[in-house]
């Protein structure tokens, strides 16, 4: 049996594909390459180039490869841009998830791991985010991910009394960084690590958005988690679903402690050997001082833990980016 990874040619999805293969599970990839890269898909892994909005394509792919479950990573992942492109965001993330679920029903596939986001919480006013915290997304992206969780929940309820009820879980994560394979790196123009890497490679000075937050060093504190740890949690979730083991509807893949932007910048200078002092730019509107999640539930059920130091996170991402440069 195999598992379908939607968005498996992207930064996170490609790591999930590798983690599945390492666990002895055959991955199959569907990706439209809107932000992914065909070269990120390992040789020998079946790759279907196409959109998750094409239900017939998904059904035929699931049937052809005897798919047992889906890890649904594909989506439009840019929270800031989603404010300018809400209709596109909803098409990709809400319609896309609905169509994935419909294709699963047609193909007789009943297990799904959904890549959700910390954006479902919006800007919580608590120092440590837990799973049942009220959901108040502040962008169309966050709203679309929350609706995705609702779609899974509702389809689970609708099929609960059937012979093959939908088994599902949603994994919410925050700032995914680093690389678990030198051939795969984050290419997003909106994430901190690739932004800093690109500026350093161009001989420019990175920027910090504000240094007067209510934190120990004045810069934002956030969850930074290594992409290989994220991928490993997806695989364990898939195994629990396939094995019929109990599983929660959602897990926060949090670091418990968080790192400040200054700590990240200091690590960037140490690891790269490029001595720099970040420029201090203006605060971004609505940026909270601190958002960090507990990962206790995921640690209990998904073998979730942070296996990398901040320097190791930076080094793995930097080496992968330099390899590609």
Order of strands in the sheet with the most strands?
3-2-1-4-5-7-12
At CATH's second level, what is the architecture of the largest domain? Answer: 3-Layer(aba) Sandwich
Main sheet specs: 7 strands, parallel
Q: What do we call the CATH topology of the largest domain?
A: Rossmann fold
Overall shape: globular
How many structural domains are formed by the residues? 2
Radius of gyration (CA) equals: 19 Å
SSE string, helices as H and strands as E: EHEEHEHHEEHEEHEEEHEEHEEHH
N- to C-terminal separation?
37 Å
What is the highest CATH level, the class of the largest domain?
Alpha Beta
**Mean pLDDT level:** 95
> Which regions are unreliable across 5 or more consecutive residues at pLDDT < 50?
none
Helix coverage percent of residues?
A: 40-55%
Number of distinct helices:
10
By CATH, the superfamily of the largest domain comes out as: NAD(P)-binding Rossmann-like Domain
| Sheet/helix structural class | alpha/beta
Proportion of residues in extended strands: 15-25%
How many beta-strand runs? 15
């Amino acid at each position: 049996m195999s598992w379908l990874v939607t968005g498996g040619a992207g930064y996170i999805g490609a790591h999930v594909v590798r983690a599945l293969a390492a666990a002895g599970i055959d991955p199959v990839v569907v990706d439209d390459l809107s932000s992914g890269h065909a070269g990120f898909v390992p040789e020998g892994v079946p790759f279907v180039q196409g959109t998750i909005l094409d239900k017939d394509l998904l059904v035929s792919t699931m049937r052809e490869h005897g798919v047992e479950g889906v890890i649904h990573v594909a989506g439009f992942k840019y929270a800031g841009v989603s404010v300018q492109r809400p209709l596109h965001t909803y098409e990709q993330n809400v319609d896309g998830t609905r169509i994935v679920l419909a294709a699963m029903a047609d193909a007789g596939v009943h297990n799904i791991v959904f890549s959700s986001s910390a954006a479902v919480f919006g800007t919580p006013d608590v120092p440590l985010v837990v799973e049942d915290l009220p959901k108040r997304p502040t962008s169309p992206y966050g709203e679309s991910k929350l609706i995705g969780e609702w779609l899974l929940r509702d389809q689970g309820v609708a099929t609960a009394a059937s012979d093959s009820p939908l088994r599902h879980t949603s994994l919410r994560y925050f700032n995914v960084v680093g690389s678990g394979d030198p051939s795969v790196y984050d290419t997003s123009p909106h994430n901190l690590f690739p932004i800093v890497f690109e500026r350093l490679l161009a001989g420019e000075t990175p920027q910090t958005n504000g240094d007067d937050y209510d934190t120990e060093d004045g810069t934002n504190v956030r969850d930074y988690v290594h992409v290989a740890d994220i991928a490993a949690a997806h695989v364990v979730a898939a195994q629990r679903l396939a094995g019929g083991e109990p599983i929660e509807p959602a897990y926060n893949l949090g670091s418990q402690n968080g790192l400040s932007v200054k700590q990240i910048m200091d690590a960037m200078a140490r690891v790269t050997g490029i001595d720099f002092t970040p420029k201090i730019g203006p605060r971004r509107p609505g940026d909270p001082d601190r958002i960090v999640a507990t990962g206790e539930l995921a640690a209990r059920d998904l073998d979730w833990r942070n296996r990398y130091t901040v320097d190791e996170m930076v080094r793995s991402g930097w080496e992968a980016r330099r390899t590609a440069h």
